[in-house]
Amino acid sequence: MDIILSIVGLLFVLTGIIGSFLPILPGPPISWVGLLLLYLTKAVEDNWWVLGITLVIALLVFVLDYIIPAMGTKRFGGSRKGMVGTTIGLIVAIFFPVLGIFGIIIWPFVGALIGELFNKTDSKMATKAAFGSFLGFLTGTFLKFIVAVVYLGIYIKVFVEHADAIFSF
């Protein structure tokens, strides 16, 4: 049973990393569930401090992911349409990787710009607002990614320390 919990936990942690980029999946909370599954194995001793602190961080980042893009948008005079455009641009980048790795950066900005152009007639102001929407999106995504990768590091460290006990029958 420990092996199954470890494998499913690793899948959750990896899914959390992917979820850092996808607006549909809450990356850090999913990664935290992976840590929880590892700590539920009989081989790994309970460490409620680690689980509690990582849960608080995951939930804090989850909430900040909604606040940071709005702050960036507001700071640069953006609108909700710009934020929606950023998300649509991200989805386009994921499902139509025309520009390769640069698409994940270019398409959200293009989406934000189009969203702001729908909202404002002045292209200069729309470009500035799109930059704010995009900057907020990048900041939130980077924060989620860093937390999810740190959780992967914690998972690997704990797993390696207890691998013998996990794989013992």
In brief, what are we looking at here?
This protein is mostly helical and 169 residues long. It has helices at 2-19, 27-39, 48-75, 80-95, 103-119, 123-161, 163-166.
Alpha-beta content class: mainly alpha
Uncertain regions spanning at least 5 consecutive residues: none
Residue-averaged pLDDT: 86
Helix content: over 70%
Choose one word for the global shape: elongated
Q: Give the H and E element order.
A: HHHHHHH
The total of beta strands comes to 0
Radius of gyration: 19 Å
Main beta-sheet strand count, sense and barrel state: none
By DSSP (H or I, 4+ residues per run), the number of helices equals 7
Proportion in β-strands:
under 5%
Our measurement of the CA-to-CA distance between the termini, rounded to an integer number of angstroms, reads 10 Å
Give the domain tally: 1
Describe the protein in words.
With about 170 residues, this protein is mostly helical. It has one domain (about 1-165). About 80% of the residues lie in helices and about 0% in strands. The chain contains 7 helices and no strands. Helix 1 (about 1-20) runs antiparallel to helix 2 and helix 4 packs antiparallel against helix 5. It is elongated. Keywords: Membrane, Transmembrane, Transmembrane helix. This is Membrane protein. InterPro entries: DUF456 (IPR007403).
